Structure formats: structure tokens, C-alpha cells
Amino acid sequence: YFVSKSPTYVNWLPLRGFLVDGKTDSAVAMWKNGLRIYPLAQAGDGAPKLEVISGTGKTVNTVHANDYSFYAEINDVIQREPVDALPPEIRGNLAAIGMQKGRPFEPDARMQ
Question: Which of 3, 9, 69, 86 could form a disulfide with 65 if both were Cys (CB 3.0 to 4.6 A apart)?
Fold first, then answer.
């Protein structure tokens, strides 16, 4: 086992395999059969089956909005994740504009 404690509830793990004879079969099999991610408390027979989602051919927008909706997106993260997921100095900056865990983010028209 390799144990890793995540500071957040939501995680994204992009992985890359390598072609063998120009085919992806061995790489796909390596990840599907060789990788298991689950809470340590579920180790053994109770470990859930890994859900593998192929990103092949999918369009993924990784550019954040550059308008007010960016702040709404950040607030969603603040509300969803543990308070310690961000360092105190970042939390302080966000609190200065009205974003705090457990409180509604309600900027006035001027701030929007």
C-alpha cells in the first residue's frame, strides 16, 4: 500500500500509460487492473472497484471564467472542502471579499 491523505474531498488524478506496438491495450489494463484507490478503512475484500473514466476524445475546458462566475466557482469550493484545504493567508484574502466557509457569498452590485 501507498497511503496518502488528501487535504480535500474532491480529487482528480490524470494518468498516462504508454503504447506497446502502437496499441493502448497494455496501458489500459495496467491502470484498470493495477491501480486501486479507496479509503484505507475499506482495504481488503470491502475495497470498492475503481471507476476508470477515459478522457480519450473528450473536450475538457480547463480555463476558468473571467467574469463574476469565477468567484461563484471559488465559493463553491470554499463551501464544499474542509476549511484547512487552503492556507490561512488565502482564506484571509477570500474573507476580505466576503467568502467564508459556512456563510453565504453575497457581494453587492458594486463588487459584482
Answer: 69
